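Support reply, case 0932

Customer input (verbatim):
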Amino acid sequence: MKVILTEKITKLGNIGDTVEVKTGYARNYLLPNNKAMRFTKENVALFEAQKAELIARHEKAKADAQSKVDVVKNAKLHMIRQAGDTGQLYGSVSSRDIAVALKEIAGVNVGSAQVMLGSPIKSVGVFDTKIALHPDVIVDVKVYVAQSQDEIDALVAGKKLTFGTKKVEGPVEEVVEEKATEKTESVEAESKQETVAE
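Our regenerated output:
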């Protein structure tokens, strides 16, 4: 379906762009939320008449989002969840959980679609994500997930948490590297033992 965008949409286009989208996406999201209008001669004329107003509204929304950047950056997104001996969560932390936490902690209303998390968090640790307050205003935030406030304080301070043989510190990438090092060390130890036994 061909539509005219009435507001900027990330990865789709700017105000006034004519784009081709799937019918379901247009009918279920863009049109009901006044983010686009069907592409017809009448709507093109209507859009041109309203263009200045739409651009002014877009700029106001952007300025409003800019004013919340520091509040979101400084929000302490600390999620206390139950986890097993290996640091795997019983459940997960989703975009919706982060949106709810932002509202409770910082008083900033965002929808779960504005939390650019990707896949849900399923383990203890520190995770980088982004909050799209506006298509032009995207804020980097850290989400700390642990079993208690003491563990969260340790993660914030950059200390390591140990679960069995697994150590959690900082971003997830570091945990993966540590696991790989542990495996290499255990293989080297086994080969040394075999050499001694011979």
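We compared this against your earlier run and they match. Two observations from our side: DSSP finds six helices and eleven strands in the chain. Residues 2-67 form a domain with the Ribosomal Protein L9; domain 1 fold (CATH 3.40.5.10). Please reopen the case if you see a mismatch on your end.
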